[in-house]
């Protein structure tokens, strides 16, 4: 098992259009369109950097996993980082052996990019929420 | 002004060797040596990914800027993200015009990589601490 690229950094934001405008206008970034992801309870905007992406996350629906984060962090904040792996089952099993917990039922779900993903428990990873995506 | 590459994601950790071992052993990452940066009050370990770096941050000295963060987040957490820019003075001035505050006295300092850096106020950037580094 070998960790791959940093696929994206996700930032939860309290105002999606304001955040997109700021990246577009003040930083001159290449900002994509807003995309609703009802299966994940988020609306996302991707910012394309030369080497990776920033994912702006905004709640979609009352059950959005971002609601609680924004209640605790009303100004927003860095929500998670996503590493690419070649084989998500092998990665999961090696991480579980090392003592890291996988969130949810432990099985990969199909993520916002249509690829299998898992999330690791932040308490087992230096307080950082880590997503692994099979590419 | 055009934002460049994501230079690194910095993660503050409560146990530097344990965090390095986890990235090395459980994720199979390419982990560098610990480097003391007394001018910045941190000891850092860089993890080289194919497209960017993870910077593990640990306090060095009683005045370390990481001490307060770890008091609030004892398990650690994602501390900041660093974007590359070509001209840090032009970037700073454009950001100030847009209403974003620069931390400290507003002048670039020489960062951990020997390049000029500034930090932007998290409240002006979706709760995310953003470092700009001139490359």
From TrEMBL, chains A, B:
Keywords: Cobalt, Isomerase, Metal-binding. Belongs to the methylmalonyl-CoA epimerase family. It comes from the Bacteria. One of its GO terms (molecular function) is metal ion binding. Gene3D superfamilies: 2,3-Dihydroxybiphenyl 1,2-Dioxygenase, domain 1. The keyword Metal-binding applies. InterPro entries: Glyas_Bleomycin-R_OHBP_Dase, MeMalonyl-CoA_epimerase, MMCE/EMCE_epimerase, VOC_core. Its EC number is 5.1.99.1. This is methylmalonyl-CoA epimerase. Residues 5-135 form the VOC domain. GO terms for biological process: L-methylmalonyl-CoA metabolic process. It catalyses: (R)-methylmalonyl-CoA = (S)-methylmalonyl-CoA. The keyword Isomerase applies.
